[in-house]
């Protein structure tokens, strides 16, 4: 007698074992490759590190092709297969401190307090001190590390909650207990954030009722992968707001007459996480108004608007008290005669740069930043290919079940644009004069674009809807591999 459920369990168990082995081979293989690159300057290429890299990467490639057929059965599984080596690659081959402001976040990972000064290992580099090559990195990773030697630093990213750093801080705490080299722990902390993103994306793509091709491509944005595979606070911030948007879309198009309580709890949890992680993205939470018709209980329908007003007033009061100076400068900038001129000049002269950064054209410090060129990794062509792939994924994400009302589509797009404007004001606070703002970073605009593109999903077929998911997987794998090659070549 056949037992289908038992067969399915065995199949899931087998997949779990194979994917775990695949991930292990990737981590060990790419770590060996990093060590081989770092130490080949003095020891040559024929080392244990090189042998380790060759053996484990060969196993990873074999497992990749073994799992390809299985992975294509589910979009989220295919995402894991493709994203895993890319995230590990960005985590290991991007030089420590090269991700924008990462030195500040690394300090928090080693001493997770939101008050300054922080106490960090004395052997960690100071702020704005860069590692220029893998040769130099090898020296840092092979040095004896003494955690009894400490120093204080004012670079502490105090505006962020300790929650943002819990996964990497836990990894570092365990590593410090065993006396592991601090620079090695930076890579381990990055890998913890990368793994968290991988799990979150698996859930998100599986949860979406439509738009999976778009989400698949968008979530493999090279710039986004670089951020998620770092110690940056953006790693958890992005997961929080993306998770909220996905849960919102799933609930909005849930065909059940009454949504289970657990769905509302999940949505509330993501709202709370956004609030804790980065309240700059809180305006996007207003998009949950599209779920108001889903509320069936009269008492709840009355209570929700009141609670929303109370929370909004509390948020405004909190921001005014804690960031009164910033708010005053922003208000002064908006009311100034030069505001529209500066905005227009920025869009006209720096708009393409922001799009370029948004799409992974610059995987190091922002363009024209005072940090110099030592950590600015330029990727000249791939960002254009990514934008083409993203556009095709939107056109290929047709679904007749998409029944946004006109006010919903318009409202979500306007909300995304408003959020982008608020980010522009916050990032350009204190600006003056008619010239453009040149220090905007495209990565900050990734969440509002994610929401707006979902609002613009198509309800009618296009010729591109026949493009299979595996085609997008191959294209995004190629784009990110080339981007990683530029990173490795830059720090060689």
TrEMBL record:
InterPro entries assigned: DUF2142_membrane (IPR018674)
Transmembrane segments: 21-42, 48-66, 78-99, 169-189, 196-220, 232-251, 263-282, 302-321, 333-358, 378-398, 410-427, 439-459, 471-491
Domain of life per record: Bacteria
Keywords: Membrane, Transmembrane, Transmembrane helix
Metal-binding in keyword set: no
Pfam entry (one): DUF2142
Protein name as catalogued: DUF2142 domain-containing protein
Taxonomic source organism: Raoultibacter massiliensis
